[in-house]
Amino acid sequence: MTLKIRPSLKLAASAAVSALALSACATTEAAPPVVAAPTVQTSAVAPGAPGAATFWASAAKTGAGSSYEAYVDGRYADGGPTGAVSRVWFSLADGVLTETMYGLIHEAQIKDLRFVMASEGGLSIEGENTSARTEYLHVDAQGRPLSPAYRVTTTDDAGGYEMVKQVFTDPDRNALVVRVTIKALNGDVTPYLVLEPHMANTGGGDRAQASAHALTASEGNTHLALRPSAPFETASAGFLGASDGLADLKANGRLTKAYASTGETPGAVVLTGALPTVAAGQTLTRDFVIGFGHSAAEAEAAADAGFSTGLDEVLARFNGEGERVGWEDYVASLDQLPRMADQAMDGGKLAYASALMLKVQEDRTHAGALIASLSNPWGETVDASKPSTGYKAVWPRDFYQVAMALLALGDEQTPAAAFRYLPQVQVRADTPGNTGATGWFLQKTHVDGEIEWVGVQLDQTAMPIMLGWKLWKAGVVSDAEMAAAYARMIKPAADFLVDGGKVGLLWNDATIKPPYSQQERWEEQDGHSPSTTAAVISGLVTAADIARASGDAASADRYLAAADDYAGRIEQRMFTTEGALGDGRYFMRLSKTENPNSQALMGDNNGQPGQPQDKVVDGGFLELVRYGVRAADAPSILATLPEYDDQSFPELFRVRYDFGPAGDTTPGWRRYGVDGYGEDHVTGANYGIGGQMAPSQRGRVWPFFTGERGHYELAAGTDVQTVRRTYVRGMERFAADGLMLPEQAWDGVGNPTPRNYRLGQPTDSATPLAWTHAEYLKLLRSVADRRVWDRYESVEARYARP
User: Fold this and answer.
1) How far apart are CA 518 and CA 503, in angstroms?
2) Strand, helix or coil at 63?
3) Is the dihedral of CA 625, 627, 629, 631 positive or negative?
4) pLDDT digit string, tens, across residues 656-683
5) Omega before residue 231 within 30° of 0, cis
6) Is the pTM of this model over 0.85?
């Protein structure tokens, strides 16, 4: 259906975007420069196949975008209010266009597109010799973003030029728009566009052609065509590290050779287009549209159609200005967003950006398929010779967090689509290759359900039930639909949470005996986990409600009996009274045995040797309070807070880190003590290069723990304004350029790596992380409601009330 548009929002947005529009990015170009380009030697076919080894781009994104597409009867199809469905996503990092996807959300076709400036002073490579600022192109009167269209301002470190880019997609076609204005400041500069395709989600196997009118690349039936608004002075297609334009520029200071094609031998290709030299004090504007398709003609047509429509109009459609249906309409449909934004400490900017980020990171073929992040962690050292989803995949745990945040915003359609999507990633008797137990949810899959990882994580089996219960109680899912979902999905999942069973899928043949989980929420260890157990109990209690409403009282009683048993033995299993830390009384990260006072060794993970279980704490115990399994003032909860917060622990075991001056600090927490999922704190190297782990790897602070703690403090009765000042503002301070919230932030321990991370700012792990944006939004909703958003009344009534 067509979303209703608030006239006041339209008026404010129109005025704001007019004020922000760059005159240099209009379709009329500035006066042509007067400096002639040097002569270039041209050849037909580039040598050097198949080119050098390929890698992905930085995961420290400062922007991510796609078009808004309205559902047609709960699915994505052409012909709805937004017309044809565009299936293109892009990302930005270091001011550079990075991984760009077409098709399914994980199918990258571009590694990066950057500009290189040649001058008498040498080369300036965008992202290496520049600094950049990422802003939203379309905002309201309060400066809150209304669409994921970006303005990127890039400044040469040597002061030779300034460049401004606008980046957005064509909402009616499979195409990406990049509009560029370059101003030469202290001398003449010759710009070169350098495009490194990674067609079909790999860095090799590509073919490329270059002409003054188009740069094209392909692998199989996947094609890309970059069209410029004016012909290139020179264009070249070459092999990475051998005959590519950037290698030529680095060697000679200008493009000296050009090749029309990479020929019939596939490989890692690079495309280069030379622009006119810009004389000192002058400005050059160029527009570029990159089309994608299943044939060369289809890709070229997608690019050409954007120019035919007019790129100002394409942007207006993307934004949803006036009567057009686009991102403004989606934002206007979020009826809870204004009151949530009122609880923010930054005027609501991050709230609006977070709402956009969650919807951006949904596949546009499989409605409701919500991914973890449009990034590949530490991508610069991740081999691109084989397909890689990175975090562009479905984990039911991250999926749950996002769906719950969207529901908190007032978006009922996407969480409903998400709930209806879930059976696609649940193990059934007919799941390909399955010979074992059914009902559990796959650890990680592609958005089309293709299996990637098969560890059993009991929280990921409980959370789909919990989401369904919330949607049912909110009236989003009807009684009749829930009864059908109960038989198809909820009952098999709840039965598995009671009975477990022997798994038989790919490598996994383990026997699962709940609530002992093969993997807890960090996907690394087996054992009894407080956070996993909290979800399992909540899943069973909510499943009992659904079972009873569906006429299955016997199963309801069975689920409650199991939940009561699990809840009654939480401290007995996971709370040590003889621990090695603090006063010895606290919840451990997990217990490998039924005896929490044993010193059972945990497994080795991420290069870190296994430690006695009583030496490792994390924040998982707070999930017991969030869902209503334990009261905020339960003795075991209160007893654990000092160990969780103790900043005097040795760096290996310490979890909490506060950032900022005394009296105005931002609290942050690592996943757990001894975490090795991060950069090497001695050498500064990326995590796990080439699959090799080292004990000097160190996991950093994860900003969503600041939100988790804020939820606990709200449940504990802490003053709402204190929660806002400390935890809401704390999460906002972790936001990167472009209002992106990361997976990890730099904690200041050890070598800051060649990227020179700043304290409390994102590392190269994964940004934007959907879970972090979701936690921030849920915290705002909880503060607005004065009650934890994803607390479960049935669970709370059974376990956490006096």
Assistant:
1) 11
2) strand
3) positive
4) 999 998 889 999 999 999 999 999 999 9
5) no
6) yes
